[in-house]
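Thread: Newbie trying to understand structure tokens

Hi all, I'm a second-year student working on a class project, and my supervisor (Dr. K.) asked me to get a predicted structure for one chain before our next meeting. I've only ever worked with sequences, so writing a 3D structure as a token string is new to me. If someone could post the tokens and maybe explain what I'm looking at, I'd be very grateful. Here's the chain:
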Amino acid sequence: MLDETFQTPIAIDLIAVGVGSLQGAMFAAGFKRIDLLGVAIIGIASGIGGGFLRDVLLSVTPMAFSNNWYLLTATIAALVGMLLQRLLQRVDPVITLLDAVTIGLFGAIGTTKALAMGLPTVPALFIGGVSAVGGGVLRDLMLNIPIALMHVGSLYAIASLVGTGVLVTLLTFGVDVFVAGIICVVVTTVLRLLAVRYGWSLPEQRALSRLRRRKEREAEATIEAIQTQAIRTIPPIAPITAEMPSAGPTPPQDPGPAAPGAHPAR
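---
Reply by user tm_fold:
Sure, no problem. This is what the structure looks like when written as tokens:
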């Protein structure tokens, strides 16, 4: 059990929540037939969703409900993201940087909080991952679109898992929790930015489909071989050449009457 958790000033937490809400609202504003309230709700869910799911899994009061500023910050950031969508797209690299830092912070806080409550290492890593990416999952569910986390794309959850894995390793060797948390945030941020910059992603699942196609090809080859062998074993059919037997000598044919002016044969 960890004696303490990775603590950050409340201002840092609020910035992280605001960045998540800002991105969620900007993303939702690009969809048609979603009203202003819908965009705001999706933005708020994106900002506080990760921490909310973390605290629900840990059976504690969600942090967003223990302080007025969390919901207020998420609401204001969601409205700003909705109204200034086009303007904010011009500073997208800055928002991407802040988002990378945010998932590092949420991952470190979630993992150390789970360890402090006595959870084993693997469940604590799971809690940290949920804390980091839970907001994006809720956003996609509310928009009724495929969850981006489940599809091929730049490393997001993996960056968080690598960072929290480094955090747990450092804690095992007795590194101070604050130092380990900062290193976790740095590792997560750098890995996430490199993935965005160079398009790194996990390979698409193909093993099962390749195995299925190989079995289909083998089955087709087996059927073709059986058919070929069957054709070779069929004996050839001799052609019918027998003629009908004759009943006797063929009678001479009557040449018929001679044409006018023709001489009889001599």
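A couple of things are worth pointing out once you decode it. The chain has nine helices and no strands. The chain has one domain: 10-201. Feel free to ask follow-ups in this thread.
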